[in-house]
Every structure is written in C-alpha cells, then in structure tokens.
Structure to design on (364 residues):
C-alpha cells in the first residue's frame, strides 16, 4: 500500500504538476490585462519615409544630434542622413549590433565572432579592434558621459551569459559579469548613471560598472510574468529620459514598467504582438513603444500569428494605447526615437528602414 501511495505521489509531482504549470504559463491573458484601452486620439499610422537596403535590417540607432542614423544588416553598417535619407558611409562589419558613441563621431560595432571595433564613420576606417567575447555580440550600450560601454554575449564552456564593460578611449576592460544560461538578451546603461541593467532569460539584475551587483531579481519576475501573461523571457529594455525613474521592459507579447528606485513592478499588459523584438522610450514624453510581429490570426502557435511588422505606442502612466505604426511587410527588429522625440526609426526583416513622424495630436 505504501508503495502505491508513493507511486501516485511521484506521478502527481513529476507528471501532472508540470503539465498544469505549463498550461497556466500559456493561458490566454485575463481580460483585465489582455486589451489595454485605446486613446481617444488613437490612430493607425501608415505613412512613413522608406529607405531600402540589400539585406534584412537587424538594428537602427540615432546619432546624439539627431541628424544622422545608422542601420545594420548582417554584413554592413549604413550611416545615412535623416533629412534626405542619403547614405553617407558604409562600414563592412559582420555582426548584429552597432551604435554611435555619445558625441556621434564614432561607431562601436560588435562582430559575429565576438570582436569589438571602433570606427571613424566619416573616413570609414577602423581605429581599434579587439577580441571582446567568444561568440556573437548581441547588445551594446554606451554611458551618457561617453566614457564606457557594455557588450553582451555568451560563453560556450561553461554556458553562461557574458556581460563586459569597456573604456571607449582605450578599449580596456573594466569588469566582466557572468550569469547562468546563454540567454544574452540585453544590457544597457541607466541614463545619467554608471549603473547597468542586465537581462538574461527570466533574470534581471542591476550592476555598477565595476561589476558590483546592486539588485538581483529572478523568481519574482519569472513568476509574475509567466503566471499572468504567458511570459517566458525578459528580452528588451529601454529607459525614459522624460521619466528616469522607470525601465520599460518586454518579452514576447507582453510589456512592463519597472520602478528603478523602489525595485518593484508597477504594471504589466498584453502588447498584442506575436513576438516583441524591440522596445523604445520617448525622450520627451512618458511613452513606450513595443515593436515586432503583428497578429493576423489568433492561436497559441506564435509562428502562425505574425506575418507583418507593427509598432504600438503606449502611455506608460496608464498602459493606454496611443497609436499603431503599420506598414512593414515583415517583423520589426529594432526601433528608436530621435533625440528630440519628433521621429521614430524602425528597421525590419523586409529590408527597409522607416522614418515615422509622431503626430502632433498625440504629442500635444
């Protein structure tokens, strides 16, 4: 009899319970968070200037003065003028990420084999290059003072996420941070500080540039998101200079606002994307943008849900949807606001970059 009871308990613990947890994690979001209300000024925006490229666009970034921007494919970084759309520099970089430095004179790129390069984009010459990681660099972020930048990748043995902080002027390493797992999603400097928010799967941590851990949150985030939104991994984060006390995060189809000072979750909602591949914050308003694949039909299989790229602009104070940016024929991979907040730049697998103007009705 004892053995039968033990066998039943084993089946419940190792078979039934995991199935129940799996189903709960994938349940459709409740009505109170599934459909955020739309603003009375809500509109669908389809008009934008387009710049075409020979390959899929993986990332976009604005120069600090807002006059230029860059768009990167798997093999090239293209720098172009915002006003005319004219490409003024072409840099041969094979990788998935590149950014302008804080004064816009240099481009920092991360290679597909872990190399990090500093480029003078005016002359299109590499001034410095070194082996920063073992594998592909997935994210780059520079500090506001222009002295430091952080890169993220992962190591093969052992399988850990690898975040490293570097000095811009010399390429000297400042610190190396490792997290369990290989989900090297994102690491970004918090505005006006030398603190870094690092995301890796279900974990979120905040570090000083020297590697000192200030906040460590794993189970709380995973439990809240997985149980309420079918959320798996934290993948993207953006910060608002209009509200420096918050972080705007996303993963798959959900969005969340995090209070940096109190270290707590403020609100979450369903962002209505098949997969959310990018987030951005307006520098002038309490707005956040989620972008990725748009739904054409419902269903649990996310691969059948997104056939085109959409961006949705949200009021971060109340999760109200302000407008939808539609027009990309494939998923949006990257998005960023101009420094003055007047324009939005999106890159897509459809081999285009779109320059959107923020409607005055919404801005006012």
């Amino acid at each position: 009899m004892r053995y039968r009871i033990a066998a039943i308990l084993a089946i419940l613990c190792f078979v039934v319970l995991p199935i129940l947890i799996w189903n709960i994690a994938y349940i459709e979001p409740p009505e109170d968070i599934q459909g955020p209300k739309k603003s009375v000024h809500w509109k669908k925006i389809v008009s934008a200037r387009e710049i075409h490229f020979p390959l899929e666009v993986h990332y976009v970034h604005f120069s600090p003065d807002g006059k230029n921007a860059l768009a990167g494919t798997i093999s090239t970084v293209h720098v172009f003028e915002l006003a005319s759309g004219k490409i003024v520099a072409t840099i041969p970089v094979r990788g998935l990420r590149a950014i302008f430095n804080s004064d816009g004179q240099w481009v920092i790129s991360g290679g597909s084999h872990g190399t990090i390069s500093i480029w003078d984009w005016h002359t299109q010459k590499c001034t410095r290059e070194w082996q920063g990681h073992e594998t592909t660099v997935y994210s780059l972020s520079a500090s506001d003072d222009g002295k430091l930048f952080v890169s993220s990748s992962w190591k093969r043995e052992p399988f850990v996420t690898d975040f490293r902080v570097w000095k811009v002027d010399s390429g000297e390493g400042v610190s190396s941070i490792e997290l369990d797992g290989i989900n090297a999603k994102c690491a970004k400097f918090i505005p006006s500080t030398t603190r870094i928010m690092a995301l890796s799967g279900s974990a979120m941590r905040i570090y000083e540039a020297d590697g000192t851990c200030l906040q460590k949150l794993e189970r709380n985030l995973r439990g809240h998101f997985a149980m309420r939104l079918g959320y798996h991994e934290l993948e993207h984060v953006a910060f608002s200079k209009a509200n420096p006390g918050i972080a705007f995060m996303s993963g798959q189809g959900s969005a969340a606002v995090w209070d940096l000072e109190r270290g707590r979750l403020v609100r979450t909602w369903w962002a209505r994307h098949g997969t959310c591949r990018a987030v951005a914050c307006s520098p002038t308003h309490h707005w956040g943008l989620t972008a990725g694949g748009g739904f054409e039909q419902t269903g649990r299989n996310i691969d059948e849900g997104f056939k085109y790229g959409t961006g949705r602009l949200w009021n971060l104070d109340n999760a109200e949807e302000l407008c939808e940016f539609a027009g990309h024929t494939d998923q949006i991979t990257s998005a960023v606001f101009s420094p003055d907040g007047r324009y939005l730049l999106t890159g897509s697998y459809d081999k285009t970059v779109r320059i959107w103007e923020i409607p005055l009705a919404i801005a006012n």
Notes: The longest strand covers residues 306-315. Residues 58 and 73 are 6 Å apart (CA to CA). The chain is about 10% helix and 50% strand.
